[in-house]
Amino acid sequence: MTEPRVCFYVADTSWYHPLLGAGPQGCILHNPPASRLPRFLCFYLGGPRHFKGTTADLDGPPSRVPRQPPFLWTGFSKGSPLSSERRITLDRKAYIESLSVPQTKEDILSFLGLAGFLCIWIPGFATLAKPLYEASKGSLLEPPDPTKPIDTPFKVLKQALLRAPALALPNLKEPFILYVTEKWGIGLGVLGQMSGPSFRPVAYLSKQLDPTVKGWPACLRALAAATTLAQESTKLTFGQPTTIHSPHRREGPFVS
């Protein structure tokens, strides 16, 4: 007898799973039909991550779920997908390189979950991932829309993962700098710090703007992008002083 398969999901505007829907507290599915279950079950905590297991895996705080696949294990200790220099390790790169073009919506979502775990390494991640998100919309039982080919978007995002640069660890004793712009309704930014005369990237940020915001003039979209990414950056800056640079001038604070 197979053990129950469980899916735990915490909803966030940047990651929506069509099978589970959205809800602030998430939900758990016991013994869902295997044909409707994504290849990797989705566990969201500060970024898309995946695991497979039973209700025993959900005992205790979500941050202590023990059965994530080795690729998605967090931290900088042994077994981490990232080395102490904040680079993706060679064996994980080999795994990414072995991935083939997704054939189903479940495969697309699985790849996006894996890529999303590494999104801070990818400049313009939301822009690169957008065609794949569009192709995964609708029922998981239906095949991807043939009018929205994903071969090229998949290969571009895959290569971006393989070329992911090293990032500096944030120094909470030093101020931060956030460069922000807006393109195609997506806020794009790079957060970093100065090390002598050099700028050290700490994270690449990208996020879809609200549909209403996308209809605003360019100057207001840039302001919305700066505000959104400034709020996102606080997950890394922990309230340390941050100077925001944008192509559009703005007087006054971005975040109250």
Automatic annotation (TrEMBL):
It comes from the Eukaryota. Gene3D superfamilies: 3.10.20.370, 3.30.70.270. SUPFAM superfamilies: DNA/RNA polymerases. Coiled coil: none annotated. InterPro entries: DNA/RNA_pol_sf (IPR043502), Rev_trsase/Diguanyl_cyclase (IPR043128), RT_RNaseH_2 (IPR041577), Viral_Replic_Matur_Polypro (IPR051320). Pfam families: RT_RNaseH_2 (PF17919). Residues 152-244 form the Reverse transcriptase/retrotransposon-derived protein RNase H-like domain. This is Retrovirus-related Pol polyprotein from transposon 17.6. It comes from Dipodomys ordii. The gene is LOC105988052.
